Amino acid sequence: MQLITSSVVIVLGYFAASAAAADCNPSYNVTAGPECISNCRQKAGSAMWSDYTTDPTSPNYIESLSYECVKGTPTYTTFMTQSGICMMSCSSDDQADYGNREHTEACAWYTEHSSDTCAGASGSGSTASASGSDASASGSDSSEETTDESAANSVKMGSLMVSVAAAGVAALLL
Fold it and tell me: pTM of the prediction?
């Protein structure tokens, strides 16, 4: 009887942990981009970190999103170059959607939620924090303008990185 009770507790614990991990980043409401773009992001990110993910419900998502949202770092440069080279094979509509919508919206969300935590493989026991959205909701209009300006600059830099990557590939092929 004790073996059955222990097994039930283990199974219930597994499902409880799975349910908690499956609900990371519940405020993420950016519509996923085209499959070609997502595949390029996943390929570039996975080459840099084995736990990289494009799944917003993952406990590793916020760190993964930092690769394309925290400008001025070697990680950002490497990620944007590698994903940009891959994205050159995606349709121009897919590239435009990523540059004009998905990247901008995802990085705006990241800016607001980058310090959120989620229970995950590390066993930290903490859950997604709502403090980022509460603090931002009481912010001023200048904060929103700064976020909009920052997002616009991110798109410009992302487009520039894709252009530079394309020029570099073209130069290598000549």
Answer: 0.58
